[in-house]
């Protein structure tokens, strides 16, 4: 097993490509959902929840790709921590509405 540097692992495991695809598709999905919320008058909390899930989905994808698409013990622990944090933030957002407002953080309104 060769000892690769961090940057070599980054290139070999195609982390940059994964980041580009994830961020692009998440942006398109959030913009489409924003259109549907405005058109049909859905609650903005739906969009807030999706944005929070997209933010916490990025580390999940990176952890998965970094571990060569294998679920090692370390990857499972990191994914579990990520899931707990995501649901904690979503729960906090529902308990205290307006305290976390991810829709205001969007670049395009």
List the helices and strands and how they pair.
Blueprint (H helix, E strand, L loop, with lengths): L5 H7 L2 H26 L3 H23 L6 H23 L14
Helix pairs in contact: 2-3, 3-4
Number of helices: 4
- How would you describe the shape? globular
Q: Please report which band the strand proportion falls in: under 5%, 5-15%, 15-25%, 25-35%, 35-45% or over 45%.
A: under 5%
What's the number of extended β-strand segments? 0
Measured between the Cα atoms of the first and last residue, the distance is: 49 Å
Helix and strand succession?
Answer: HHHH
Gyration radius, to the nearest Å?
17 Å
Q: Level of helix content?
A: over 70%
- Mean pLDDT level: 86
Would you tell me the structural class of the helices and strands? mainly alpha
> What is the oligomer described by this structure?
single chain
**In this structure, how is the largest beta sheet organized?**
none
Low-confidence stretches: none
